[in-house]
Amino acid sequence: MKFKRYTHFDDLAGLKDQWNHLLENSASHVPFLTFEYQAAWWATRGGGEWPPDSQLVIVAAFENDQLVGVAPLFHAHNILGEPALMFIGAIEVSDFLDFIVKPGDLPNFIAGLLDFLFNEKDLPHWEVLDLYNLLESSPTLAALASEADQRDWDHKQIHLQPSPFISLSGDYETYLASLDKKQRHEIRRKFRNVETSLAVADFYFVEDREQLASETQAFIEMMAQDPTKRDFLTDAMQQHLRNTAEIAFDHGWLQMAFFTLDGKKAAAYLSFRFNNRIWCYNSGWEWEFRDFSPGWVLLAYLIQWANENGIDEFDFMRGDEPYKYKFGATDRHIYRVTLKP
User: Fold this and answer.
1) What pLDDT shows up at residue 229?
2) What is the CATH number of the domain that holds 35?
3) Which of 42, 162, 264, 269 could be joined to 331 by an S-S link, Cβ 3.0–4.6 Å?
4) Is a pLDDT exceeding 80 seen at residue 57?
5) Looking at the structure, do residues 155 and 183 belong to the same domain, yes or no?
6) In the 3-class helix/strand/coil scheme, how is 18-51 assigned residue by residue?
7) What region does 170 belong to: left with phi over 0, alpha with psi -120 to 50, or beta?
8) How high is the pLDDT of residue 191?
9) Can you tell me the distance from the alpha carbon of 156 to that of 140, in angstroms, rounded to the nearest whole number?
């Protein structure tokens, strides 16, 4: 493998299709690793999470001029103040990250990449490879541990948090039957609460590109009604959400859904429909409708829709919020790995 560093996404534009094709065959085929998402994240440095002077250190591997691996990295000081190389997307707004490489090529890619990062003279000074949000199923975890052991590098694998998900059977009633009896009753009770009210309930997906900007703004304003999210929604973070919605819509994997009562927006989910899964990215609701539990009702609608449309999995992504388990989710976990020469 021959390795080359890139410092601007514009220099990689000619490799965009190869990048995304390689992603389809990688162990972590997730929306956060698409070329488009990575470039959008970098444009705001993750909604302002990282300083503007952070530097791209994207390393691509080639065999016979064919792209066979991508290490989507950037340089900044990590949360401990150490000069570090981290995954583009770290930490807060990109749930799953990884190297982009076929599993069979991963050991050679990791070995060559570490040689390149250690020996390349033109890289910014770094002291730790600090890799967040690796799924427990990723072979990268074992490959990094093995390579660190062979080189006698310091290696740590740190559990970050669970990432609950639901495997879908294709039948909504079967899904409901799998839930705890109390929770199944609670979902049906919330539906009846809406049905017996005088409000007319409906839900829809955003499908008109001309309406996307205003619908995204409505979603952001809905999010901001939650005190725990208000401070999170800085100008830079709002721009990140707009950028993300636009690139996901333009490439066919945005699922922005609104639940309405009497024609008024009551709740919304911004998700991705990608790799035949629904990835729940964020949500919001209008507090004036909180007595109707609109977020729960919309979530139940979306799980029903996913079953009826052949979706394999409903991914709640990172976080152990109780409602995820009440809807029948089970855990998988994500990790942070650090390597120091």
Assistant:
1) 87
2) 3.40.630.30
3) 162
4) yes
5) no
6) HHHHHHHCCCCCCHHHCHHHHHHHHHHHHHHCCC
7) left
8) 87
9) 13
Judge whether residue 151 has pLDDT over 80. Answer: yes
pLDDT per residue over 23-43, tens digit each? 999 999 999 999 999 999 999
State whether 68 and 171 are in the same domain. no
Which helix (H) or strand (E) covers residue 246, if one does? helix 235-250
**d(Cα 156, Cα 153) in Å, to the nearest integer?**
10
pLDDT at 226: 86
Q: How far apart are CA 126 and CA 55, in angstroms?
A: 12
pTM over 0.90: yes
Amino acid at 256: M
Give the relative orientation of helices 35-48 and 235-250 as an angle to the nearest 10 degrees: 170
Q: Report d(CA 106, CA 139) in Å as an integer.
A: 8
Residue 117 in this model has a pLDDT that exceeds 80 = yes
Asked whether the predicted pLDDT for residue 198 surpasses 80, the reply is: no
H or E element in which residue 176 lies: helix 172-178
Torsion of CA 262, 306, 163, 274, to 10 degrees: -110
Torsion of CA 176, 181, 186, 192, to 10 degrees: 70
Q: In the prediction, which pLDDT does 290 show?
A: 87
Q: With CA atoms as reference, report the closest residue to 30 among 140, 169, 160.
A: 140
pLDDT at 158: 98
Number of domains in the chain: 2
For tokens 């639901």, name the residue: 166
Contacts of 166 (CB under 8 A, 6+ apart): 175, 303, 313, 314, 316, 327, 328, 329, 330
Distance CA 226, CA 241 (A): 16
Same domain, 149 and 30: yes
Instruction: Dump strand ranges (E) for the chain.
Output: 2-6, 55-56, 58-63, 66-71, 73-77, 83-87, 100-101, 128-135, 154-162, 165-167, 201-205, 254-261, 264-274, 277-285, 313-315, 333-340
Query: Quick check: 208 pLDDT over 80?
Result: yes
Are residues 293 and 175 part of one domain? Answer: yes
Q: Are 249 and 212 in contact (CB under 8 A)?
A: yes
CA distances from 48 to 91, 216, 309, 318 (A): 11, 19, 36, 20
My answer on whether 189 and 307 are in the same domain is yes
